[in-house]
Amino acid sequence: MNPSMQSVFRRACGALFICAFATCAFAQAPAPAWPAAEWERATPEEMGMDSAALATFVEFGANTRMDSLVVTRWGRIVAEAYYAPFQRGMKHRINSSTKAVMGALAGIAAGQGRLDVNAPALGFFKGATAANEDDRKRAITVQQLLNMTSGISWVEPLSDEVPETMIAMGRSANWVQFVLDRPMAQAPGAKFNYNSGDWQLVSAIVSLASGMPSRDFAAKHLLAPLGIVDWRWRLDPQGVATGGFGLYLRTQDMARFGYLYLHHGQWNGTQVVPRAWADKVFQASVPMFATGAWKYADGWWTLPSRGAYFTVGFDRQLIVVMPETGVVAAMTGRSNYPLDNVIDHLARAARSASPLPADAQGQAALDAKIREAATPKPMATLPAAPPIAREVAGRTYALERNPWGMKEMTLRMDGAPAMELVVYTSRTSNATMKVTLPLGMDGKFTMSETPEGLTAIQAGWTDASTLSAVLRVPEEGISRTYELRFDGARVAVTVTNSTGAKTSFSGEAR
């Protein structure tokens, strides 16, 4: 058999397996469990899943900088890992997975008769003016905003490249007006183009159509029915919930939203999202990329050939729904990795539609990986502080103007070690504030509240003149490393962010 025929044969066998599995699953799958305040739990084998395969998935999470991972099947949690310093119960910014939640709100409003998604989008903004208005802009429908096929000119690549237009929107005084004023790049409906601005208009439209802020509409008609009570949602300068990003959820609650869609918008007997609306996700038709393999629908990325449906946020804030196997998974993190890897791990773990024999060895391996994930990894540091630590303690260093807004730095090494910073309050202001960052010098993260949120810092002397500090803001998915190299009265500072981008500047003791 030649290679091309082998490939066809493998795909055909795979398709037959999926079809056979799906038939078996629907015939033998246990009745769904509906989470109340807590999810039910089961061993992987009780749910037909492989503990050893899930242990490998948890390890994959450690290697790809996940912050959390929750895997469920048929409404029971079978694996749950939190990677230190992120902890169970914390919320996480879910970035563009927010779009799928906003898409559900549009569907609920449509089902209530409040919103016609085929109506022109501009018609909802009574009395507003839009720059660059033409027939193409007037023809944009709400559904085209939901599909990100509005045709509005927008630069927000699906990569680590700079999302120029999204940043410009964030710096503008009125986000909705900023989007309304953008020029058109093409006719609406012509082509998919990733655009968080489309979703800011959707959020405003849901507010206008429902007669209440979209965040309040979400609380009443979506989050509360699912039992999601611990959340927050960023607002734009006019108080409109950010439609394309900015929602914070616990990982278990992300899984609740996926479980809602696994059940076609129904939650424990109540149709929360209209079934026809929820099912659009599983019938997506808008091609995202040139290959056409990935399709888009109402905030969801879909890969029908693999039976996988995702909400996707930057740095892999993911909700995964795999209807053929009854698997829903949620994960948060700090790096982008191939989505196919997630599908592969979940597909390997879901071995059977009926219980498997208990696997004590596999369960022990899974438990060990979960414990390992929750244990902070100590930094490689000197066994004792070098002499220079005494020299720099208490000194205040005036720093060059830098992108991080740091004006002055003082190290406190006695008692509770800390780095005291004087920082500018904004890029355009000379006003400053003081921020104290406790330094975990014992190999553990020290937690403290800062203007960025709950912050964890681990620090240590890595050589005779260099102090390194790893800063994490777990709920924001932020990770930075500060390297302070001292030489006499001078300090050279290098800040490295989670993408590996480095900024260097220096300072001098006063």
UniProtKB/TrEMBL annotation:
InterPro entries named among the record's database cross-references: Beta-lactam-related, Beta-lactam/transpept-like, Diverse_Enzym_Activities
Keyword Flavoprotein part of the UniProt annotation: no
Stated name of the protein: Serine hydrolase
Source organism of the structure: Caenimonas aquaedulcis
Domain of life (superkingdom): Bacteria
GO MF term (any one): hydrolase activity
SUPFAM superfamilies: beta-lactamase/transpeptidase-like
Lineage: Bacteria, Pseudomonadati, Pseudomonadota, Betaproteobacteria, Burkholderiales
The entry's keywords: Hydrolase, Signal
